[in-house]
Amino acid sequence: MISIVYVSNAGSSKRYAEMLSEKTGCPCYAFADSDKAVGSDVIFIGWVMAGAVQGLSEARVKFGTLKAVVAVGMMKSDSQDASIKEKNSISEPYFSLAGAFDMKKLSGMYKMMMGMMVKMIKGKLKESNEPKAKEMVEKFEEGFDMVSEENLGDILAFIGE
Ligand SMILES: Cc1cc2nc3c(=O)[nH]c(=O)nc-3n(C[C@H](O)[C@H](O)[C@H](O)COP(=O)(O)O)c2cc1C
User: Fold this and answer.
1) How far apart are CA 45 and CA 38, in angstroms?
2) 28 and 76: one domain?
3) Residues forming a β-bridge with 148
């Protein structure tokens, strides 16, 4: 049996886990509440912070070999996927999904980290006024939500195999 286990900070990884669960009938659990998943084939979904898939090492300790790893970040790109795989030593089947970002949903250290990042990009903007950086600052300040069922095609095909 397949179980879906997730670690989510602001909710987008949780939403993907719940969507997958609804579509496949596989149960899904927050990592903190995942004892029932021990012994099943676990698909682990974790949000990405500074390139690290949150909760992945703990999930490997708890469940052993994972059936697949799904990284939820602010975007999906081949270059980021390559570096996430390397940084997190991912040899399991790997998928990535674009998540959501809302400064208002962050608190504590995470809010501070992202606040510093936006400030840094803004500082660089003053020097160069690069359109791409401007777009990025606007995206962070306004927030964005790219969570969509349409993104799940590859993972659903994998589960169906
Ligand atoms: C402190 C911090 C660092 C982040 N670092 C990355 C990153 O390195 N790469 C990335 O794609 N997304 C990064 N993100 C964006 C989150 O991964 C993204 O918003 C994700 O959807 C959050 O998932 P959640 O809603 O389940 O918490 C970062 C977000 C925060 C708050």
Assistant:
1) 15
2) yes
3) none
